[in-house]
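Posting this for the archive.
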Amino acid sequence: MKEVHHWLELASKHEAAYTGLIHDHNYKWCSEFKQSKTRYKEMLTEVVKALEDELNKLDKPTDISNMRAGAI
């Protein structure tokens, strides 16, 4: 999640140009992102929230560092 939050930070600081090779390979996404200067960040924020919601539904990991080898 640290990396994903870094992407959000970068989206706030840098404006992308959705042209050239990026447009050639992802023209539908580029059209969507070109709608406004903040569209990419808005969409990314939505999916990050959805990802966090789903991850939070999972059971928390157990610390297995103190378990005996045969007990796992």
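The chain has four helices and no strands. The mean pLDDT is 89.
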